[in-house]
Amino acid sequence: DPSRLRPHVVLAQENTQIRDLQQENRELWVSLEEHQDALELIMSKYRKQMLQLLEGRRHEDAEPVLKVHQANSGEIESQIDRICEMGEVMRKAVQVDDEQFFKVQEKLAQLELENKELRELLSISKESFEVGREDLPD
Fold first, then answer.
1. CB under 8 Å, gap of 24 or more: what pairs does 112-117 form?
2. Coiled-coil segments, which residues (predicted)?
3. What is the per-residue DSSP string for 26-78?
4. Residue whose C-alpha is closest to residue 30's, from 79, 82, 90
5. 68-76 — which CB contacts under 8 Å span 24+ positions?
6. Measured between alpha carbons, how far is 85 from 102 in angstroms, rounded to an integer?
7. CA-CA distance, 90 to 107, in Å (whole number)?
8. For the chain, which ranges sit under pLDDT 70?
């Protein structure tokens, strides 16, 4: 029956889409962690070089260098904050997708049960109609 297959096909497509989104989410998290690790490595090297520069030029005025360092640190911190916010948005999106998936599954089960009950009522109705017809005189 093609009408019975349609919900299963739609559900299968949604399952595939959900799995694809979950896989993409995992890949994005891995990428995010790699970027954070790279950023931490760059910053540690930058700090080490700045420390060496400041130690080598103690007698020179280090304030402009410190200002540049502070500005860069602030910019990097804001970028890290944005990355964390993006990660939180992705986490919430996955949660919403999961909730929607469970709602669809619940609704499908509810409709299947209702369909079964209606078919039983229809079957009972047909049987009583046929019995009533047999009792009528010709």
1. none
2. 101-128
3. HHHHHHHHHHHHHHHHHHHHHHHHHHHHHHHTTTS--HHHHHHHHHHHHHHHH
4. 90
5. 72/46, 73/43, 76/39, 76/43
6. 26
7. 26
8. 1-9, 57-62, 65, 135-138
Q: Which residues contact 101 (CB under 8 A, 6 or more apart)?
A: 14, 15, 18
CA proximity to 65, closest of 75, 79, 76, 55: 55
Q: What angle do CA 88, 17, 33 make, to 5 degrees?
A: 35
**CA-to-CA dists, residue 40 to 52, 73, 81, 130, angstroms:** 18, 11, 14, 80
pTM for the whole thing? 0.39
Q: Each residue of 82-92: pLDDT tens digit? A: 988 988 899 89
